[in-house]
Amino acid sequence: MIDVVTVDTAQLGNRSYLVHDGARALVVDPPRDFERLERTAEDAGIEIAAVAETHLHNDFVSGAPALARRHGVEHFVAAAERVSFRRRGIADGDVFEVGGLEVEVLSTPGHTPGHVAYAARCSDASTPVLFTGGSLLYGTVGRTDLSGAEQAERLARAQYRSVRGLAERFPAETALFPTHGFGSFCASSSACSASSSTIAAEAFDNVALTVDDEDRFVRDLLAGLGPVPAYYDHMAGLNRAGHGLAPVARPQLVGPEGLSAAIARGAWVVDVRGRQDFAGAHLRGSVNIEYGANCATYVGWVVPWGAAIVLLANSEARLSEARRDLARIGIDRLAGATLGVQTMSGQDVRSYPRRRWEDLQASYADDGGLPEGVGVLDVRQRSEYDAGHLRGAVSVPVQDVVGAAERIPHGTVWVHCRSGYRASVAASLLCAAGRRVVLVDDDWERAAEIGLRVEPGSAMAAAH
To answer: What is the pTM of this model?
Structure first.
């Protein structure tokens, strides 16, 4: 018998796995907060007997070294990877046993140079299950530029061959269990929405298996790679050093005086309350990154790496959730934490309006142009802007807002994205810089529905 239990980390778009024979389990690609996997194993009466990683991750701090140490079990990592923690180095063709499981190591370079996959089977099962990490994803493959732009093409060719090698070697019914592809920026393109897949299913619609020309595959993959969160630059180094072994510091709760002192020292106050609450009242200079599935990603993208951060939320429970998510990406030494309603009393409080598309429509002049002193800022990614944007809108992706003062329209800036989330981040950054902003808190699809003029991509995108 072989069974696979999936544990999602939706906030980072990843999955971890517990593969077992009914008694002993191998854990594949655990996150830093691996306690969820431990609870799953305990509830099922299964012993964690080994831990394996498909690659050194670029989008989160691995929990594998700490999990293996806590349970006193072997930690399998590609021998080609230079790391500073104790592990068992493995290479292509190696086979190891975990209880009744036989696990084969498969070299699958591409997403990273030392990437491996694992094929696990039981003696009573002829078809294995395949853990493909950041290589063969559902409908797509892992991006190949995270180890450096100079290696991207070489790794893209390796990725193509790795994926096709897996498809040729294993039976069509082989079940696939990738780590990335569920919202992670490690995917080279948007993965399909399937919750499971097989070699046969991927042969039908995976780009690496449906494009028979390697040069075309490489050209299209590299051309389609979008931006990645800035914090990715630091993850591989942290994981080589075994950063997940370090304890996560609990931040000190600060009151109004402590918060004022932190601001005076240059700390970033990251307010994770809902965007409607923030727009209505927030501390001058604070930044709104609303708590949700993308909170940690945008903190790691917008706030300079290593900057002092004070978290502000409406409840201790929300503070705890935000702290956990930030620790997953190595932000684990916060300068403080505070509860918003209590702390803002007596402080310098600001606000800005939230509006819908109808309100912006009413601002346009009879000739369809914007009046003097009013501008529209589109903070979606460039590919979204090129697919269609409002007449007269300026494109500055949310992650570029801080360093793009000269490109931001003058006067009052109406800020929008696809749903209002990224716009709320950008509006708060502009407000902190002293700009007059209006947050368009509305769905992009409604803009055309109500009659706002949406134009296709143009030279304006390149000009900005």
So the answer is: 0.93
Structural domain count, the chain: 3
Domain check: are 214 and 319 in the same one? no
- Residue labelled with tokens 């070699």: 199
pLDDT value of position 461: 38
Q: Does one domain contain both 420 and 329? A: no
Band the pLDDT of 191: cuts 50, 70, 90.
Answer: low
State the residue for tokens 């619609």: 205
Q: What is the CATH number of the domain that holds 316?
A: 3.40.250.10
Arithmetic mean of pLDDT over the chain? 93
Residues 6+ positions from 411 with CB-CB distance below 8 Å: 372, 373, 374, 375, 436
Residue ranges making up the domain that contains 448: 354-463
Q: What is the pLDDT of residues 427-456, one digit of tens each?
A: 999 999 999 999 999 999 999 999 888 888
Query: What's the DSSP call for residue 443?
Result: -
- pLDDT at residue 257, rounded to an integer: 84
Which segment of 27-41, 118-132, 154-168, 226-240 scores lowest on mean pLDDT?
A: 118-132
Nearest by Cα to 119 from 109, 134, 129? 129
Residue bearing tokens 């923690």 = 85
- Residue 123: per-residue pLDDT: 77
Among candidate residues 186, 209, 240, the one where a domain is terminated: 240
Q: Are residues 74 and 13 in the same domain?
A: yes
Task: List the one residue out of 112, 119, 24 whose CA is nearest residue 62.
Answer: 112
Phi/psi region, residue 127 (left: phi>0; alpha: psi -120 to 50; beta: rest), is beta
Q: Does residue 245 carry a pLDDT above 50?
A: yes
Q: Label residue 185 exposed, middle or buried (CB < 10 Å: 0-12, 13-18, 19+).
A: buried
Residues in the chain: 464
Calpha distance 344→24 (Å, rounded): 52
C-alpha distances (whole Å) from 116 to each of 24, 80, 81, 119, 313 are 22, 10, 11, 10, 40
Continuous segment of H or E residues that includes residue 51: strand 47-52
Please check whether residues 256 and 221 belong to one and the same domain: no
